[in-house]
Amino acid sequence: MNKSFCTIEHHCLDLGYGHLRVHQVKDLERLTTSIDQYGQLVPIIVVPKAEHQWTLVDGYLRIKALKRLAKDTAEAEVWECSIEEALVMVLKNGFCPARKSLEEALLLQELHQQCGMTQQDLANRIGHDQSWISRRLSLVEHLPDSVLKGLLEGSLSLWVGSRILAPMARAIPEHADLLLPYLLAHGHSTREMQVFYDHYQRSSHEARDKMVEHPELFFKARRVYDEEKKTNALKEGLVGEWREKCHLLVNLLRELKTLAASIEKDSLPLFNQAVLPFNELTKVIGP
Known about the structure:
The chain is an alpha/beta fold and about 290 residues long.
Protein backbone atom coordinates (compact mmCIF):
# COMPACT_ATOMS: atom_id res chain seq x y z
CA MET A 1 0.00 0.00 0.00
CA ASN A 2 1.36 3.40 -1.01
CA LYS A 3 1.51 6.06 1.70
CA SER A 4 2.27 9.74 1.58
CA PHE A 5 2.13 12.74 3.90
CA CYS A 6 0.44 16.08 3.43
CA THR A 7 -1.27 18.95 5.25
CA ILE A 8 -5.07 18.94 4.91
CA GLU A 9 -7.62 21.63 5.73
CA HIS A 10 -10.45 20.44 7.95
CA HIS A 11 -13.21 21.28 5.48
CA CYS A 12 -11.68 18.78 3.02
CA LEU A 13 -12.28 15.85 5.42
CA ASP A 14 -15.24 13.47 5.34
CA LEU A 15 -15.94 12.67 9.02
CA GLY A 16 -18.44 9.91 8.28
CA TYR A 17 -16.89 7.37 10.62
CA GLY A 18 -16.96 9.47 13.77
CA HIS A 19 -19.78 7.31 15.16
CA LEU A 20 -17.26 4.49 15.58
CA ARG A 21 -15.14 6.44 18.07
CA VAL A 22 -15.35 7.08 21.79
CA HIS A 23 -15.34 10.81 22.52
CA GLN A 24 -14.65 11.30 26.22
CA VAL A 25 -14.29 14.88 27.42
CA LYS A 26 -11.28 14.14 29.64
CA ASP A 27 -9.41 12.53 26.72
CA LEU A 28 -10.15 15.52 24.51
CA GLU A 29 -8.95 17.96 27.16
CA ARG A 30 -5.73 16.01 27.70
CA LEU A 31 -5.01 15.79 23.97
CA THR A 32 -5.82 19.47 23.44
CA THR A 33 -3.30 20.43 26.12
CA SER A 34 -0.66 18.18 24.57
CA ILE A 35 -1.11 19.56 21.05
CA ASP A 36 -1.11 23.11 22.38
CA GLN A 37 2.25 22.50 24.10
CA TYR A 38 4.04 20.21 21.65
CA GLY A 39 2.10 20.40 18.39
CA GLN A 40 0.47 17.52 16.52
CA LEU A 41 2.89 14.66 17.06
CA VAL A 42 0.85 11.88 15.40
CA PRO A 43 -0.68 12.38 11.93
CA ILE A 44 -4.28 11.55 11.22
CA ILE A 45 -4.91 8.73 8.75
CA VAL A 46 -7.01 9.37 5.65
CA VAL A 47 -7.88 7.69 2.36
CA PRO A 48 -8.64 9.59 -0.86
CA LYS A 49 -12.34 10.19 -1.58
CA ALA A 50 -12.35 12.65 -4.48
CA GLU A 51 -10.13 15.43 -5.78
CA HIS A 52 -9.02 17.44 -2.74
CA GLN A 53 -11.31 15.33 -0.53
CA TRP A 54 -10.30 12.64 1.97
CA THR A 55 -12.13 10.29 4.34
CA LEU A 56 -10.83 10.36 7.89
CA VAL A 57 -10.04 6.83 9.11
CA ASP A 58 -8.15 7.47 12.34
CA GLY A 59 -7.66 10.67 14.33
CA TYR A 60 -11.14 11.97 15.11
CA LEU A 61 -10.09 13.12 18.58
CA ARG A 62 -7.05 14.90 17.10
CA ILE A 63 -9.31 16.80 14.70
CA LYS A 64 -11.56 17.88 17.57
CA ALA A 65 -8.55 19.06 19.56
CA LEU A 66 -7.11 20.96 16.59
CA LYS A 67 -10.44 22.68 15.97
CA ARG A 68 -10.68 23.61 19.65
CA LEU A 69 -7.27 25.28 19.29
CA ALA A 70 -8.54 27.15 16.19
CA LYS A 71 -6.07 25.37 13.91
CA ASP A 72 -7.42 25.05 10.36
CA THR A 73 -5.18 22.23 9.13
CA ALA A 74 -3.99 18.80 10.22
CA GLU A 75 -0.93 16.75 9.35
CA ALA A 76 -2.11 13.60 7.60
CA GLU A 77 -0.82 10.24 6.41
CA VAL A 78 -2.60 9.31 3.17
CA TRP A 79 -3.24 5.63 2.47
CA GLU A 80 -3.87 4.72 -1.16
CA CYS A 81 -6.45 2.00 -0.53
CA SER A 82 -10.17 1.41 -0.05
CA ILE A 83 -11.92 2.46 3.15
CA GLU A 84 -12.54 -1.22 3.94
CA GLU A 85 -8.83 -2.04 3.69
CA ALA A 86 -7.99 1.00 5.83
CA LEU A 87 -10.40 0.00 8.62
CA VAL A 88 -8.94 -3.52 8.61
CA MET A 89 -5.41 -2.12 8.86
CA VAL A 90 -6.38 0.12 11.80
CA LEU A 91 -7.82 -2.89 13.63
CA LYS A 92 -4.94 -5.18 12.77
CA ASN A 93 -2.12 -2.86 13.75
CA GLY A 94 -3.72 -0.91 16.57
CA PHE A 95 -2.55 2.51 15.39
CA CYS A 96 -4.20 4.09 18.43
CA PRO A 97 -2.33 2.60 21.44
CA ALA A 98 -5.20 3.42 23.79
CA ARG A 99 -7.83 1.87 21.53
CA LYS A 100 -10.78 0.72 23.57
CA SER A 101 -12.58 -2.58 23.12
CA LEU A 102 -15.76 -0.65 22.32
CA GLU A 103 -14.10 1.04 19.34
CA GLU A 104 -12.78 -2.32 18.14
CA ALA A 105 -16.30 -3.74 18.40
CA LEU A 106 -17.79 -0.83 16.44
CA LEU A 107 -15.15 -1.07 13.70
CA LEU A 108 -15.76 -4.81 13.41
CA GLN A 109 -19.51 -4.25 13.28
CA GLU A 110 -19.05 -1.71 10.48
CA LEU A 111 -16.96 -4.17 8.44
CA HIS A 112 -19.34 -7.04 9.22
CA GLN A 113 -22.65 -5.29 8.53
CA GLN A 114 -21.82 -2.54 6.05
CA CYS A 115 -18.92 -4.13 4.15
CA GLY A 116 -20.35 -7.66 4.19
CA MET A 117 -17.30 -9.36 5.72
CA THR A 118 -18.02 -12.59 7.61
CA GLN A 119 -16.63 -13.22 11.08
CA GLN A 120 -14.17 -15.71 9.61
CA ASP A 121 -13.08 -13.17 6.97
CA LEU A 122 -12.43 -10.66 9.74
CA ALA A 123 -10.51 -13.22 11.77
CA ASN A 124 -8.29 -14.07 8.81
CA ARG A 125 -7.65 -10.44 7.90
CA ILE A 126 -7.02 -9.11 11.40
CA GLY A 127 -5.08 -12.02 12.89
CA HIS A 128 -7.46 -13.12 15.66
CA ASP A 129 -9.53 -16.27 15.88
CA GLN A 130 -13.25 -16.26 15.11
CA SER A 131 -14.22 -16.54 18.79
CA TRP A 132 -12.40 -13.26 19.53
CA ILE A 133 -14.32 -11.55 16.72
CA SER A 134 -17.59 -12.95 18.08
CA ARG A 135 -16.86 -11.77 21.62
CA ARG A 136 -16.00 -8.28 20.43
CA LEU A 137 -19.16 -8.04 18.33
CA SER A 138 -21.26 -9.19 21.28
CA LEU A 139 -20.24 -6.04 23.15
CA VAL A 140 -22.40 -3.87 20.90
CA GLU A 141 -25.04 -6.28 19.63
CA HIS A 142 -28.59 -5.46 20.75
CA LEU A 143 -27.50 -2.21 22.43
CA PRO A 144 -30.19 0.49 22.11
CA ASP A 145 -29.03 3.66 20.36
CA SER A 146 -29.46 5.65 23.59
CA VAL A 147 -27.14 3.28 25.47
CA LEU A 148 -24.57 3.28 22.67
CA LYS A 149 -24.62 7.09 22.66
CA GLY A 150 -23.84 7.12 26.40
CA LEU A 151 -20.96 4.70 25.89
CA LEU A 152 -19.46 6.73 23.05
CA GLU A 153 -19.68 9.94 25.07
CA GLY A 154 -18.03 8.25 28.05
CA SER A 155 -20.98 8.89 30.36
CA LEU A 156 -21.53 5.13 30.74
CA SER A 157 -18.94 2.44 31.40
CA LEU A 158 -18.65 -0.46 28.97
CA TRP A 159 -19.21 -2.85 31.89
CA VAL A 160 -22.57 -1.29 32.77
CA GLY A 161 -23.57 -1.13 29.12
CA SER A 162 -22.68 -4.73 28.23
CA ARG A 163 -23.37 -6.51 31.55
CA ILE A 164 -26.50 -4.73 32.74
CA LEU A 165 -28.21 -2.51 30.16
CA ALA A 166 -27.70 -4.83 27.18
CA PRO A 167 -29.26 -7.97 28.77
CA MET A 168 -31.96 -5.80 30.35
CA ALA A 169 -32.76 -4.29 26.94
CA ARG A 170 -32.98 -7.75 25.36
CA ALA A 171 -35.43 -8.94 28.02
CA ILE A 172 -37.47 -5.79 28.80
CA PRO A 173 -36.44 -2.81 26.64
CA GLU A 174 -38.66 -0.43 28.62
CA HIS A 175 -36.67 -1.14 31.79
CA ALA A 176 -33.37 -0.23 30.13
CA ASP A 177 -34.91 3.01 28.87
CA LEU A 178 -36.15 3.88 32.37
CA LEU A 179 -32.84 3.09 34.10
CA LEU A 180 -30.58 4.85 31.58
CA PRO A 181 -31.30 8.50 32.55
CA TYR A 182 -30.50 7.73 36.19
CA LEU A 183 -27.19 6.05 35.31
CA LEU A 184 -26.21 8.96 33.08
CA ALA A 185 -26.69 11.34 36.01
CA HIS A 186 -25.28 9.20 38.85
CA GLY A 187 -22.04 7.27 39.19
CA HIS A 188 -21.96 3.93 40.98
CA SER A 189 -19.16 1.40 41.42
CA THR A 190 -19.12 -1.95 39.65
CA ARG A 191 -19.94 -3.65 42.95
CA GLU A 192 -22.94 -1.40 43.60
CA MET A 193 -24.28 -2.00 40.11
CA GLN A 194 -23.73 -5.75 40.43
CA VAL A 195 -25.70 -5.77 43.70
CA PHE A 196 -28.48 -3.79 42.00
CA TYR A 197 -28.65 -6.15 39.03
CA ASP A 198 -28.49 -9.30 41.17
CA HIS A 199 -31.42 -8.02 43.23
CA TYR A 200 -33.24 -7.02 40.02
CA GLN A 201 -32.90 -10.53 38.58
CA ARG A 202 -34.22 -12.18 41.76
CA SER A 203 -37.19 -9.83 42.09
CA SER A 204 -40.77 -10.13 40.87
CA HIS A 205 -41.91 -8.20 37.80
CA GLU A 206 -43.67 -5.67 40.03
CA ALA A 207 -40.53 -5.13 42.12
CA ARG A 208 -38.42 -4.76 38.96
CA ASP A 209 -40.76 -2.04 37.73
CA LYS A 210 -40.23 -0.10 40.95
CA MET A 211 -36.45 -0.58 40.86
CA VAL A 212 -36.03 0.93 37.40
CA GLU A 213 -38.61 3.66 37.98
CA HIS A 214 -36.97 4.80 41.24
CA PRO A 215 -33.42 3.36 41.38
CA GLU A 216 -32.35 6.07 43.85
CA LEU A 217 -34.60 4.47 46.49
CA PHE A 218 -32.81 1.13 46.12
CA PHE A 219 -29.35 2.67 46.52
CA LYS A 220 -30.50 4.77 49.47
CA ALA A 221 -31.95 1.70 51.19
CA ARG A 222 -28.76 -0.21 50.46
CA ARG A 223 -26.63 2.50 52.07
CA VAL A 224 -28.82 2.43 55.19
CA TYR A 225 -28.53 -1.36 55.30
CA ASP A 226 -24.73 -1.25 55.00
CA GLU A 227 -24.46 1.40 57.74
CA GLU A 228 -26.60 -0.70 60.08
CA LYS A 229 -24.37 -3.70 59.44
CA LYS A 230 -21.27 -1.68 60.28
CA THR A 231 -22.87 -0.35 63.47
CA ASN A 232 -23.86 -3.83 64.60
CA ALA A 233 -20.39 -5.13 63.80
CA LEU A 234 -18.79 -2.44 65.99
CA LYS A 235 -21.09 -3.43 68.86
CA GLU A 236 -19.85 -7.03 68.61
CA GLY A 237 -16.20 -6.01 69.02
CA LEU A 238 -13.44 -8.01 67.33
CA VAL A 239 -15.80 -10.78 66.27
CA GLY A 240 -18.05 -8.27 64.54
CA GLU A 241 -15.08 -6.54 62.92
CA TRP A 242 -13.81 -9.91 61.67
CA ARG A 243 -17.23 -10.77 60.23
CA GLU A 244 -17.56 -7.36 58.55
CA LYS A 245 -14.11 -7.55 56.95
CA CYS A 246 -14.85 -11.08 55.71
CA HIS A 247 -18.06 -9.77 54.18
CA LEU A 248 -16.13 -6.98 52.43
CA LEU A 249 -13.54 -9.45 51.16
CA VAL A 250 -16.25 -11.73 49.75
CA ASN A 251 -17.79 -8.78 47.91
CA LEU A 252 -14.40 -7.75 46.52
CA LEU A 253 -13.70 -11.30 45.35
CA ARG A 254 -17.08 -11.38 43.61
CA GLU A 255 -16.19 -8.13 41.88
CA LEU A 256 -12.81 -9.55 40.83
CA LYS A 257 -14.56 -12.64 39.47
CA THR A 258 -16.85 -10.41 37.41
CA LEU A 259 -13.95 -8.37 36.08
CA ALA A 260 -11.94 -11.50 35.30
CA ALA A 261 -14.67 -12.64 32.95
CA SER A 262 -14.01 -9.53 30.86
CA ILE A 263 -10.28 -10.21 30.45
CA GLU A 264 -9.46 -11.65 27.06
CA LYS A 265 -7.48 -14.81 27.68
CA ASP A 266 -5.99 -14.56 24.19
CA SER A 267 -4.45 -11.20 25.11
CA LEU A 268 -1.32 -12.45 26.88
CA PRO A 269 0.05 -9.10 28.15
CA LEU A 270 -3.30 -8.16 29.66
CA PHE A 271 -3.72 -11.60 31.20
CA ASN A 272 -0.24 -11.44 32.74
CA GLN A 273 -1.01 -8.03 34.23
CA ALA A 274 -4.13 -9.49 35.83
CA VAL A 275 -2.28 -12.51 37.24
CA LEU A 276 0.42 -10.49 39.01
CA PRO A 277 -1.84 -8.89 41.69
CA PHE A 278 -3.57 -12.26 42.18
CA ASN A 279 -0.21 -13.84 42.97
CA GLU A 280 0.44 -11.10 45.53
CA LEU A 281 -2.96 -11.84 47.11
CA THR A 282 -2.13 -15.53 47.52
CA LYS A 283 1.11 -14.60 49.33
CA VAL A 284 -0.94 -12.66 51.91
CA ILE A 285 -3.70 -15.20 52.52
CA GLY A 286 -1.49 -18.26 52.21
CA PRO A 287 -2.28 -21.58 50.53
